[in-house]
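Progress against Task 2.4 (sequence-to-structure conversion) is shown through the following example record, which the project officer requested during the mid-term review.
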Amino acid sequence: MSDPDEFAVAVSGASLKADFLGRQTSPTIVEQFQTRQWALDFQQAEVRARILGYPPLDWASLALIRGGGESSWYGSPASRGFLVCTPPGEAIDGWIGPGFECSSVGVPALVWEQCRRAAGHESGSLDAAVLPLPPARFAAIERCLLRLRRSLRESGARHPAVVPLEVTEFLHCFLT
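Structure tokens generated for the chain above:
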């Protein structure tokens, strides 16, 4: 992607608006995998941009910040090792800088509720948040994500029945 309007698809199913705040040093790369039950996106950007938009209706987004580039979400800085949580109905609101890299998982509200309960939050008490993860937790989630990405690339088309099971196992990484 090289044009701000192309960022509208940077998160599966979302309607995003990007305002470039500088020149892009190389094209943005977005790799997406999506079904009706989940969406998995891998993004890498080399531009400073303001991002604003909404996940699909009744969906939430969990984004693992994986790159060394700066970003800020909901007014809080986020870098490698942070988890950005966007509950259903909330806008994705932030900015990114060159070197930004993240992996995001879009899930229906029911899965969001399971994550919220597993985190020990009362109903409705988990708002959009930027959370630092303990290094071991971050590494475990990142390994799960990269393994899932490889599996989706290699066998998703040949063995579609395997993919939902692997996505379920990945989501379990978030919950345990």
